[in-house]
Amino acid sequence: MKSVIVLLGPPGSGKGTQGEKLSEELGYTRLSTGDMLREAVRNGTELGMKAKSYMDSGALVPNDLIIGLMKEKIAQAKGGVILDGFPRTVEQADALAQQLDVDLALNLDVDDDELINRLTKRRSCPQCNAVYHLIYNPPKAEGVCDKCGGALYQRDDDKEETVMNRLKVYRENTMPLIDYYEKKGTLVTIKGVGSIDDIFKQVEKAVQ
Ligand code: AP5
After folding, report:
1. Residue nearest to atom 8 of ligand 1 (CA)
2. N or C: which end of the chain has fewer CB within 10 A?
3. Which residue ranges form the domains of the chain, and what is each CATH number?
4. pTM of the model
5. DSSP alpha helices (H): ranges in the chain?
6. pLDDT averaged over 10-residue windows placed end to end, the chain, 208 residues
């Protein structure tokens, strides 16, 4: 069983959705840089204050802030880990490689029209980080998280204009990691379109 898993893929490809299911099934620790940064912004920490303007515009937070944060979190994690949203640049991938070996880089492939549709209709829970989609994966009660009862909200960076910038930033900075992990022999690409459960079956196969 693969125990260090990197989730690659553009914004909205389903990294959080599939990563959460995998972490529940395998008991691995899921480390999502996006969730950590949003929590830091909500709590008004120094990291949150530095990260906010980058996140609001859809840009990447500077490498030094992210690498330092993840180095610490990875060192604290026990057992298998699922890295959701990290690395996102070659510099971050090189820093990660100095700390541990990645067994599997799972790339979720979804086209831009579908990504825009998913992100602009996504609703998120600020308490437990669960994600929903108004049409494909709605909560049982409108505006309320099924898992913890939190009040769902729309992320600021899920507005269409910011989504377009996030896709551009992804293509320029993160797509090169597909080649990076292919050369290392750890890349598996899965078409991330179809039902969440069908995609998860392919994810399960890839981690065997
Ligand atoms: P982050 O939170 O990591 O955002 P992201 O990578 O843009 O990914 P998303 O969370 O938007 O999407 P996802 O792939 O997890 O999809 P999801 O499962 O939610 O990062 C946010 C910001 O933080 C960045 O812009 C940057 O500023 C900063 N940051 C984070 N990491 C960084 C790093 N390493 N370096 C620098 N800066 C960093 O699904 C999306 C929607 O689709 C949901 O509504 C879901 O219900 C729905 N859905 C999922 N699967 C399906 C399906 N199969 N069919 C239909 N709908 C589906």
Report:
1. 11
2. C
3. 4-111+174-207 (3.40.50.300)
4. 0.95
5. 15-26, 33-43, 46-57, 63-76, 90-99, 112-120, 160-169, 176-184, 196-207
6. 95 96 96 96 96 96 96 95 98 97 98 96 94 94 97 94 96 98 98 96 97
